[in-house]
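Check my protein:
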Amino acid sequence: MDEIITSRFNEELVKKMDEAVARGHFRSRSEALRVMVEEYLKTHPDLFIGDGLKRLAAEAPTLPDRKLEEIGRHLFKDEIATLVAEGRERR
């Protein structure tokens, strides 16, 4: 079920959002905000690190490279797996 959230934005942000709507990128302010928040949350998964991930981070130094790369791909898309591999090569 969708929930309505009331927010306050400064004039500059509202103008930018209205421009995006006027140019046809979104059907409404509501859709624009929803898409923008969804995209932000997708690109910042670190905002939701739970206890399980904290334990995993503590175990990371003892995990084999293959397992770290697999976890990285799953959690942070392919970019983190590349960084992990590059970091291990530099040791």
